Amino acid sequence: MKNIKLFKASLVALALSAVSNVNAESLAITNATVHTVTEQGVLTNATVVIDNGKIIAINPEKVVADVTYDAMGKILTPGLIGSMNSLGLVEVGAVSRTRDARDKKADITFDASIAFNPRSTVVPYTRKGGITSNVTVPSGGDSMFKGQTFVADLSGEFNSVYIKENAVIIDLGAKSSGSRALSLQKLTYKLEDAQKALKKAAEEEQKAKKDEKGGDKKKPAKEPKRDEKIINALLSGEKPLIAYADRATDLLELLKIKAEFNLDLVIAGGADAILISDQLAKAEVPVIFGALDNLPSSFDSLHSSLNNTAKLTQAGITVALAINDAHNLYQLRFEAGNAVANGLTKAQALASVTANVADVFNIDAGRVAVGKRADLVLWSADPFELSSKVDKMWINGTERTTQSRHDELRKRYTTNSDLPRAYTK
Predict the structure, then answer these.
(1) Which residue, among 333, 342, 150, 169, has the nearest Cα to 267 in the 3D structure?
(2) pTM given for the model
(3) Strand segments (E) across 172-272
(4) Separation of alpha carbons 296 and 69, rounded Å
(5) Which domain holds residue 173?
(6) Which residues touch 23 (CB under 8 Å, ≥6 apart)?
(7) Domain contains 219
(8) Do the Cβ atoms of 104 and 142 come closer than 8 Å?
(9) What is the pLDDT of residue 405?
(10) Vertex 35, ends 265 and 68: CA angle to 5°?
(11) Residue (of 415, 380, 376) closest to 396 by Cα position
């Protein structure tokens, strides 16, 4: 009986080993025009080797890989990174039972990644735009703190969320009811209280150590509450604070708060950022917005313009482009293309949807460099051109299809069939 169990265990081990070997299959992409989004710039006739989900070599002297793919000179870029949307949390906006991005009682502790649906039909559709990862943002509830972002790859696998609770979202600026001043005041008070509590805790810790040396028993430190831990993470710079605000006065107040508490601050929206670009650049505050925001949506956004992306970039500000509508996220590359048409260079545009997003949200991706995630896209031609498409896509080193429900519907209704025209099975 013991021998039978050992034999079965050996079979399981062999099976697991076989699976492991399949998953560990390395790949060399050769003869590619690689836009690295690093100081190396563009490499021609280049080779990129990936293994175990990472880029392990670029232009090695000797190519050693299980599989080789000839890119035939086509453009290879990092996978694009979406952000500031509800991908995976909303299937149909008009159907309440498919919406998980918001809850009236949501606060700073709100972690919407628990409800993320990697099998959403929007995910494969988004892959068509060359997007390999996304920073999903909850819309929170009544609190000014809307919750925390999370990062998921677009593989469609159930383990696709790979960073949880990585940034805090706060909504400031114009209010339909009440004053914007109160929100900014509350934020300041919240940070001040947390700072005082940390200082008091440090003093008590020092006193406890002295008492312990004197023979007194040390009392256990009081455990901070969940929301207090998150605020403390903001104060330590562990988490960035993503602040929705447009008007210049609000942005200037946020810069004061950043300086006072040494926050890792990021502006989302920032329609008036162009008015204080020098201050933002000096404070090293990135800005996330849409390149097509060219008309005022409120009295806070009177300075929206198609050339703001280029002007802010030229001022030395890290600009990340985003599309708020998850169902149109696949158009992110066209957003970048329009920014090129309005003054941004192609290299800057590519960075605005790859490396800059990665830097803002502390994601180990967005560049073709050794050690980075192997999230790569091979394009039929210039990725910012409307007629171009994704030829190949690798997410975490594994090739993924760009086929979606839309392709199946087109195939169903453009081919002859004995089935009724309304048949959808």
Answers:
(1) 169
(2) 0.90
(3) 241-245, 265-269
(4) 47
(5) 80-181+225-366
(6) none
(7) no
(8) yes
(9) 87
(10) 125
(11) 376
- Asked whether 110 and 140 are in contact (CB, 8 A), the reply is yes
274 contacts 307 by C-beta, under 8 angstroms: no
Domain count, the chain: 1
Confidence (pLDDT) at 5: 43
| Cα gap 295→303, rounded to integer Å | 8
Average pLDDT, the chain: 91
| Residue 7 host element (H or E) | helix 2-23
Could you give phi then psi for residue 366, rounded to 5 degrees?
90, 0
Rounded distance, CA 382 to CA 181, Å? 46
3-state secondary structure string across 87-135: CCCECCCCCHHHECCECCCCCCCCEHHHHCCCCCCHHHHHHCCCEEEEE
How far apart CA 66 and CA 75 sit, in angstroms, is: 22
How far does CA 249 lie from the centroid of its chain? Answer: 28
Cα–Cα distance, 382 to 372 (Å, whole number)? 23
Distance CA 187, CA 202 (A): 23
CB of 168 closer than 8 Å to CB of 187: no
Question: How does DSSP assign 400-419, residue by residue?
Answer: -----HHHHHHHHHHS--SS
8 Å CB contact between 266 and 360: yes
284: which 2 tokens?
């090293």
Q: Which of 372, 395, 388, 342 is nearest to 38 (CA)?
A: 372
Q: Find the helix or strand (DSSP H, E) in which 320 lies.
A: strand 319-321
SS3 of 52, please? coil
For residue 37, count CB atoms less than 10 angstroms from its CB and return exposed for 0-12, middle for 13-18, buried for 19 or more: buried
Arithmetic mean of pLDDT, 328-353: 98
Residue 353 domain-assigned?
A: yes
What pLDDT was estimated at residue 239? Answer: 97
Within 10 angstroms of residue 142's Cβ, the number of other Cβ atoms is 9
Q: Residue 180 belongs to what H/E stretch? A: helix 180-213
For residue 203, is pLDDT > 90? Answer: no
pLDDT of residue 208: 76
Alpha helices in 262-382 (DSSP H): 277-283, 308-314, 332-341, 346-352, 355-360
Q: Is residue 299 part of a domain?
A: yes
- Decide if 49 is inside a domain: no
Residue that has been written with the tokens 């870029």 in this structure: 77
Task: Quote the CA–CA distance of 149 and 116 in Å, as a whole number.
Answer: 11
Find the helix or strand (DSSP H, E) in which 6 lies: helix 2-23
CATH number of domain containing 247: 3.20.20.140
**Which value, in Å, is the radius of gyration of the alpha carbons in the chain?**
25
239 class by beta-carbon count within 10 Å (0-12 exposed, 13-18 middle, 19+ buried): buried
CB distance 128 to 330 below 8 Å: yes
